[in-house]
Amino acid sequence: MAAQERAIRTRHNIMLAAATVFNERGYKAATIADILAKAGVTKGALYFHFPSKDELAQEVLAAQNRDFSVPDRPSKTQEVVDIVMLHTHRLQSDPMVRAAVRLTMDQLSTELDRTGPFRQWSDVTRERLEKAGAQGELLPHVLPGETSDVLVGSYAGVQSMSHALSEYQDLPVRVNALLRHLLPSIVLPSVLASVDIAGDRGARVHAEMLAA
Amino acid sequence: MAAQERAIRTRHNIMLAAATVFNERGYKAATIADILAKAGVTKGALYFHFPSKDELAQEVLAAQNRDFSVPDRPSKTQEVVDIVMLHTHRLQSDPMVRAAVRLTMDQLSTELDRTGPFRQWSDVTRERLEKAGAQGELLPHVLPGETSDVLVGSYAGVQSMSHALSEYQDLPVRVNALLRHLLPSIVLPSVLASVDIAGDRGARVHAEMLAA
């Protein structure tokens, strides 16, 4: 195994260990010693990759950003939906994404800057909504900045409720219901008629991206 | 001071101390010793009122339920809005409500049953939506159980985003935006035209209840 490949693998192991420890203990209570024990690496190796606990947490938080890139669609509204649905799928299936979301929603981690994920999600969504607007997909009164914040904020709560009530088992159903309530206030009915918001949309987009 | 009055005051002091400690340390890391130190009461007094840390947390969680009772209105949609707006006001002004919401949203507190607040909020909202439907205020396709879950879940996330980005300063503006996106999919336009969803609605309902 080449040195570079080994470094990438070590880095990934440390992140997975950190994600698990943050998940189990919360950001505040988690220690570097816990993460070292879980990752099975030396202190030197950890600090080579991540100078502090905060930088580690920020890297874990960033794991959810991979859901931003979805295939191009003629309808930009569909891209907004696909980002939400792909994230829903990965929240159910990827422990790193789960850890990232829990850190984001941890209102007790006051020392950790949790604003990044909210802002990034909102920026990515706003950009797509602006394109959707330019293409004439949106209702005339929509302000993309306001609407993207509503989408991101409301999604964050629906996933939290689904986590508390069913450990994410009912998440696709709840996300579908949320979109049925929000999209008619955002998108023209004629556009909405051909947007796919089915609960299994995320799994299909994920498969499409793996195949590509 | 009568013995009963003293007991009520002690109980309240313990709850306030517990709320502060849960807020600062999270449910998992908080200890009975921390709460005793903060409340300045004896172990015996604490266990007289609350048999366990879990019971204490459940009482703190229940603090948000006081927002369920709002004055009767001819429009039941307005009552749903008033519950949301009163809660928004108290989230900005009452440390106990803040602590209750943080505990509810603490996805790391896996030993704590956080399902109660989600279910209670949804039940109270569903009941009012059913009445609104019976009075002909709602669009014909609305399922009160589904819509109440969407309202409660999306609100939970919007408050979390507002907490992360502005320590709740922008909460009334965000809640107003959320309601403008959701209500047109729930309520008849002719009803919606006379529903008050202004950002200062919560403060006004609160003042009205204090005066009564």
From TrEMBL, chains A, B:
Keywords: DNA-binding, Transcription, Transcription regulation
DNA-binding region range list: 31-50
Species of the source: Streptomyces lancefieldiae
Entry-linked Gene3D superfamilies: Tetracycline Repressor, domain 2
Highest taxon listed in the record's lineage: Bacteria
Protein known as: ScbR family autoregulator-binding transcription factor
Residues in HTH tetR-type domain copies: 8-68
A Pfam family the protein falls into: TetR_C_45
